[in-house]
């Protein structure tokens, strides 16, 4: 599976932390060897990986950077196991665009990295691994989250105060005298079919629960979207279909909650990988 559709979006993520890379090369030069600082599922994490993460994302604490690189390795391994890959030419394009964003040529970028004892090969490998990490998070965590829009909205609503749901329902109001003569037809619970056969037009509306007839509101509360059930009063039988549930949010609060949910889902995903992984930390500087 290729990540070509994601590649340019991801390359922009990589470019952001080093916005002043060309102007602010650290005065302190790291003297690095390809020393193994940790092992994730028998794959070594090198000191250069951690130092590159610190440089790219401005993380000063070595332990924090190492923990994040371990996460990147775990997720990128998961991606590779499922056939995700990034063509070498795309990595070259990302590096080239990254260099341009810093006002450098690729050669000048590599020279600056070499002055930090960080070679171009190590940089390219890190860029590939990080892009696999971001691609896997998008495909296996965020995409499923956003595909189930109703569940996401319900999750957002549960975390915000004073948010009332609005229910979109379709209701077929059938006199009981008619219902008694068409029991077999009603068993189908197909509003369109029943309305055509009985020549009764359904009503479609969006409302709060308290604005619905109490018997109908009780049915709506227990229905899942696109499901139907019956309500009744003295004279009528109501076939009720819940089309969907919507909410009115403050946009800023909504985005804040979405970010929290995304972070939680990513953490859950990474933690599930850690439970199955063999991780050895050799240096915790």
Description of the molecule:
With 285 residues, the chain is an alpha+beta fold. The chain has 2 domains: 4-149 and 261-281, Orthogonal Bundle (Triger factor/SurA peptide-binding fold); 164-247, Roll (Chitinase A, domain 3), CATH 3.10.50. Helix content is 56%, strand content 16%. The chain has 12 helices and 7 strands. The chain has helices at 4-15, 47-57, 62-81, 88-101, 106-115, 120-147, 149-159, 176-181, 183-186, 191-198, 214-222, 251-276, and strands at residues 36-40, 43-46, 165-175, 203-207, 228-232, 236-247, 279-281. It has a 4-stranded antiparallel beta sheet. It has a 3-stranded antiparallel beta sheet with strand order 2-1-7. The model is unreliable at 1-20 and 26-33 (pLDDT under 50).
């Amino acid at each position: 599976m290729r990540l070509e559709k994601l590649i340019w979006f991801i390359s922009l993520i990589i470019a952001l932390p080093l916005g002043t890379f060309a102007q602010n090369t650290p005065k302190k030069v790291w003297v690095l060897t390809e020393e193994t600082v940790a092992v994730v599922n028998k794959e070594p994490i090198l000191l250069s990986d951690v130092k590159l993460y610190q440089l790219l994302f401005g993380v000063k604490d070595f332990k924090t950077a190492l923990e994040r690189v371990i996460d990147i390795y775990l997720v990128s391994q998961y991606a590779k196991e499922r056939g995700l890959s990034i063509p070498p030419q795309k990595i070259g394009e990302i590096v080239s665009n990254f260099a341009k964003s810093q006002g450098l040529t690729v050669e000048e970028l590599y020279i600056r990295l070499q002055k930090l004892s960080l070679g171009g090969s190590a940089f390219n490998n890190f860029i590939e691994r990080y892009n696999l990490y971001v691609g896997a998070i998008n495909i296996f965590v965020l995409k499923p989250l956003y595909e189930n829009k109703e569940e996401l909205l319900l999750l957002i609503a549960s975390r915000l105060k004073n948010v009332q749901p609005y229910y979109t329902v379709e209701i077929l109001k059938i006199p009981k005298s008619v219902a008694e003569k068409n029991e077999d037809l009603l068993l189908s619970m197909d509003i369109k079919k029943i309305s055509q056969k009985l020549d009764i037009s359904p009503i479609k509306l969006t409302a709060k629960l308290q604005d619905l007839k109490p018997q109908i509101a009780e049915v709506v509360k227990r229905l899942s979207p696109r499901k139907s059930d019956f309500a009744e009063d003295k004279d009528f039988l109501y076939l009720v279909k819940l089309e969907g549930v919507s909410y009115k949010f403050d946009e800023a609060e909504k985005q804040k909650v979405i970010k929290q949910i995304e972070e939680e889902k990513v953490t859950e995903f990474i933690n599930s990988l850690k439970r199955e992984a063999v991780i050895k930390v050799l240096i915790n500087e």
